[in-house]
Automatic annotation (TrEMBL):
GO CC annotation, single: plasma membrane
Keyword terms of this UniProt record: Cell membrane, Membrane, Protein transport, Transmembrane, Transmembrane helix, Transport
A GO MF term: transmembrane transporter activity
Pfam families the UniProt entry points to: ExbD (PF02472)
Lineage: Bacteria, Pseudomonadati, Pseudomonadota, Gammaproteobacteria, Thiotrichales
Organism: Methylophaga nitratireducenticrescens
PANTHER family referenced in this protein's UniProt entry, alphabetically: BIOPOLYMER TRANSPORT PROTEIN EXBD-RELATED, EXBD MEMBRANE COMPONENT OF PMF-DRIVEN MACROMOLECULE IMPORT SYSTEM
Gene Ontology biological process: protein transport
Primary localization class, coarse: membrane
Domain of life: Bacteria
Gene3D superfamilies: 3.30.420.270
Similarity comment text for this entry: Belongs to the ExbD/TolR family.
Membrane topology: Single-pass membrane protein; Single-pass type II membrane protein
Protein name: Biopolymer transport protein ExbD/TolR
InterPro entries: ExbD (IPR003400)
Length: 143
C-alpha cells in the first residue's frame, strides 16, 4: 500500500507570504511613531518675537495667546480683552495651588508694547505672579 500525502491547501501558502510584509509595515509604523513629533497648533496664528537667549520651555498652568489683530485666547478659548482678568481668576481658582500658578504668554511680534503692558497689568490684577514670554530662537542667516 502506497501512502499519498494529502494535498496542501493553496490558501495557506498565500497567507504565509503576507506575514513578512505585515511585519515590515508594523515595524515602519512603530519607527515613524517614535521618530515623529506631533505639535498642537494654536487657535490664533501668531509669529513670536525672536530672542538671542535659549531656555527650556517649562510646563505652565495656562497659555495666553495674543494675535497681531488683538485677539486673545486662554487655553484655546477666545475671550474679550476686558474679561481677561475675570477669566484668569477663574483659572487660578480651578488650579490646585494659586501661589504656584504659572502663565505662558505667546504674543505676535507685531503687538505694540503698550498693548502688551496693558494686558500684563490685567494678568497681575488677576493675581498671577509667574509669567513667561514665549519667543523663538533668532537665527543668524547670512544670505
Amino acid at each position: 500500500m502506497i501512502l499519498i500525502p494529502s494535498p496542501v491547501s493553496r490558501s495557506n501558502q498565500l497567507d504565509d507570504n503576507m506575514i513578512p510584509l505585515i511585519n515590515i509595515v508594523f515595524l515602519m509604523l512603530i519607527f515613524f511613531m517614535m521618530a515623529g513629533q506631533l505639535n498642537s497648533s494654536n487657535l490664533i496664528k501668531i509669529q513670536p518675537p525672536t530672542s538671542q537667549q535659549q531656555s527650556v520651555l517649562e510646563e505652565h498652568d495656562a497659555i495666553l495667546l495674543i494675535s497681531a489683530e488683538g485677539q486673545l485666547a486662554v487655553n484655546d478659548v477666545l475671550i474679550e480683552a476686558n474679561k481677561l482678568t475675570e477669566h484668569l481668576k477663574q483659572k487660578i481658582s480651578e488650579s490646585n495651588d494659586a501661589q504656584s500658578f504659572t502663565l505662558l504668554v505667546k504674543t505676535d511680534a507685531t503687538v505694540p508694547v503698550t498693548k502688551l503692558t496693558t494686558l500684563l497689568k490685567q494678568v497681575r490684577a488677576a493675581g498671577i505672579l509667574k509669567v513667561s514670554l514665549a519667543t523663538q530662537v533668532h537665527s543668524a542667516r547670512h544670505d
